[in-house]
Structure formats: C-alpha cells, structure tokens
Fold each of these.
Amino acid sequence: MHKNSNKMERRDFTDAIGNTHPQAVDPRIVSLVPSITELLFDLGLEANVVGRTAFCVHPKEAVKNIRIIGGTKQINMDKLRAVDATHAIVNIDENPKEMAKDLAAMGIAVIATHPEKPEDNIELFNLLGGIFNRGAEAQTLCVALNQALDEIRDLRKTLPSSKVLYLIWKDPWITVSQDTYASQMLALINWQTVGHNPEVRYPAIDHLPRLLEISDRVLFSSEPYSFTSVHIEDFRTAFSCAGKRLQKVDGEMVTWYGSRAIKAIRYLGELATS
C-alpha cells in the first residue's frame, strides 16, 4: 500500500458537476475513464484501483492486474459488485449519465470529471489528489504541467497559424468542435481546428470538400478510429488534397487529459516543428 506523507486539512472537494466529496479513507476505486486510470497510477494509487474498462491500457503492464468490468459506455454490474468499489470516476463526455446514476444508486461515490482545455488538468490533479489524499503527488504533476505549458507558450510565439481538419472517425467522417479538449490542445501550437459546430462537440461532416478547401493540414487520429497509412493514401486519392499535409497523429497525446498531458504537450511541440 502506498504510504502517504501528506498532512492535509480534512475538507471536501467539488467535482465537475458540483458534487462534493470528502477525503476518502481506504478507497476502492473503479475508473471508467482510460486517461484517468493512468493518472491514478501516477498519483500512487495503484493499490486502490480495483476496476477498470477494457480501454484502460496504461500503464501497460500494471493495469493487467486490475479487473476489467466493462467498457466506457456499458459495464457488467455483477463484475462491478464483485470488486466492492467505494468510488467510481466518470467523465461527462465519455460515460453515459445513466451509468453514473446507476453507480450512485448502488452507494458508490461517483466523481465526475470534465477537463476542456490543457490548463484544466491542474484542477483535475488537485481534485483527485485531494479526495484520495495524494496532495504532494498532485502538486508534483501540477509543477510539471505548468513547466510544459510555459515551454509550449514560448514556442507558440514562433509558430505560424494553421487551420487543421482533425478526423476521429470515418463513415461518416467526424471531427471535433473548438470547445473540445482535443481542439484546445492543438491550439497550443497555433493549429485551429475547422468544422466547429456550436451545438455538437463531435460533429459529423456534411461537406468534406468545403473543409478541405480551407484546411492547411488534415490530421488522422489513431483513436477512436484507428487510421492507418492506407486510409490516408485512400483519402488522398479520393479527395483533392493538393498542397495539403496529411498526417497521422497519436490520438492519446491529443485527447488524453490527466498526467498524459505533460508529455503530450511536448509531443505537440515536436509535431509542430517537424
């Protein structure tokens, strides 16, 4: 069991939907958010994580010891009961509201998260670090994130502005609106996403040629749709892409909030200067 050296004043912590949570004692945590599973390990809570989704794949070797209870959209309630969880962590975008309600009805404390921009990870670190008594570890992550943000802001001053079409799905083609975490991450390197829909965070594209016309780059994410070099070449053949740069990007680096954001910001810096 991780031995915590923090001496924190007992208080409540407020999650993304306004629910308050006291500091936990001997928590048994189910994470239904892949990026947050990774964060929990980086906070030193590996002994407290008792359940995860099939998509919680980092840290690669360590998570193999954690029981899979389902996916991000549906879980096996019998498997959930078997792990005797005290807390479950969900995300507003990734997990259905009904799932969260069902968990709460079982007496599980449901912690809602919703980072919308890279800077929001500071609040996320402090929220989970506070609830699970890992304040020192959370502060270490905050310092590292702020350093990465300072570095990318300095780099951004030297970067040209580009319009990018960020594709996350095909049949139909789906992109991201500018109020999403992915779009805000790309904005760190002066890449402005196109295809914004103020009513839909992940809109299907109605007229792809029109967006291609105004885009400097087309980015093919590795998740949730696993685009390959074959998909990119097929796209180049099917559409007029003269003068456009088509490239695959690591979707985990662009969309995973939490501790992944620290190295993701540096990844984006390398992407912008390559």
Amino acid sequence: MLVVDRARTTWRDSHFSELPAEIEAGDLLVLNNTRVFPARLIGKREPSGGRVELLLIRQQFVDESFGRHSGATELRNESCVWETLARPARRLERGAIVTFGDGRLRARVLEKLGGGERVVLFECDGKFDELLEEYGQTPLPPYIKRRDESARDEDRARYQTIYAARRGAIAAPTAGLHFTPRVLEKLRARGAGIAEVTLHVGYGTFAPVRADDLSVHSVPPEQCEVSAEAAAAVNDAKKNGRRVIAVGTTTVRALESFADETGVVRPGTGESSLTIIPSYRFRVVDALLTNFHLPRSSLLVLIGAFAGCDLALAAYRHAVEARYRFYSYGDCMLIS
C-alpha cells in the first residue's frame, strides 16, 4: 500500500495490513457493497455455430433491485432485454439468434448500437437469473486470462468483496478486495465507523477516455443508492470534523452524486453519471483508498482530480519503479 499525503505532497511505502494504523478514532470508512453477477455469457450463433460472447451491460426493462422501468411491459416474465457488448459483433445483425448451453437460454438481437454494443432480448425456458447463474461466467477484466474451468470457479468467490451484498455489478469495486474480516475488526477496534453505499459498477467505469478535452468526457450512468442510514453517518462525521474515507472510486462517485453544494448527503436511489475531472470540487470525501488504474481511464482522471495531477503522476511513477502491482488484483494506495 502506497500512502500519499496531499498536504505535504509526499508518499511512503506501507502494507495494507497496516491500514488500521492509518485510521483515527471517529473516521468513517464508506464501502461499496455491490455484488458482481456472472454477466459474461459464451454461446453460439445460429445456425452457423460460431462462438459469440455477450457481456451484459445494462438491463432495459424492469430492474427489481431499484424499481427502474423503461416501458417494456409487454415482455413475458421469463424474458428480458439487455444492452450487451458482443464479441465478435460483425455478423450479429438485427434478428440474429445466439443460444447458450443446452438451448434453454436464447438471445435475439433487437438493435445495433455503436461499436460492438447490441440490444438483445433473452428468452428463457425457466428463470433468467437461475440460467445466468448456470451458464454465466465472472466478467473478469480482459487482461486476466484463465485457461481452465477450476480457475473460473475460484474467481466467482475471489472476484468479490467480503461485504458484497447487492447483486448488480459487472466488475468488482477492486479497492474492497483487500479487506478481510480481521482488518474490519481491527478498524472497528480503532474506533472507526463503517457505512455502506451501493453503486453497481458498469462498463462505463472502465471505458477508455477517448476525448482529448476532459470537459467533454462523460461517464455513462450507473445505478446507485445511498441509504438514509449511510447518509446520516456521513453527515454526522462531516458535522463533527471527522474524516470520510471512501473505499474505491465508485464510492467517491456515489457519495458525491448525492451531496448538495454544502456537502450534505441526501439519501436516494437513482443513476449516477457524475464525471469527476481535475476542475471538480469535492464536497464529501476527505481520503480515498484505491487501486492503481489503467492509463486514459476515468478512474485515473478521478485520482488526478483528488490528489492533484502532478502528485498523482509522481506517485504512480514511484509505484512503477517500486514494482507495485497494478489493476484489479493489484496493490493499493491511500490518499489522505
């Protein structure tokens, strides 16, 4: 764990096991309790039998977790519509059929969007969620390669935080992967508070920044919820001069999305499309625990906004020289 001090513009090497020593009594750690679901489906295109991968990005009709609805009421209970990322997508025209497993789950292309994105209607012989658990795979980042099924089964357990509770993410909030029950116990023993919010990590979080001008860059909306209990805990900490420490960039976006101009967090449910760039004024978060991120990503831009671009880049250069591990299963940094 790299510990970065914004006020002193310094950093030092540490270990995540030492996190409780960096926490003061009264500090509030806020966790993102989203749970990754098996959103990666491997099927075959009919009638050719060609291999097709679909990554579920966004459900388009009823989302029971958040009560969202987009008008597709005519669909049967065993059917649902999703925006997906298809690979390869070249031959997936409107009307194309993809089947999965023994054929109890089928997808029909309804619409072509930009790039490899396709809107598909899933038709099921049974319940969609149950078939997804049976046929779906953990949507690991593309730089993580798996050659055998046993490793994929292990990822279902490992690519998940220990406090994951609310199903809906297609990627883990990776800063939380470091936590163990023992670390949480030590944090509570130090007098730290723990609160939970939900931001279902979507494809947009990891989509590359393609705009040269960050002012025109935007992060696609992701489902988000801040409970009344979490909002009260955050507001009490801010009122009494205690630090709010976000675990992960998604937690930052959840908290800042529901804060007013004075920094008061309002409970609510909805979609967060907050895009944080260096001109952003943080209203809630005082410190951030985060992993090391890919170049040209919204996540790295957020780190630069929070730590200051020069300090963030200097800390990253040190991390490279010190051989820190980057990305999802990598090391972390605490920015305070």
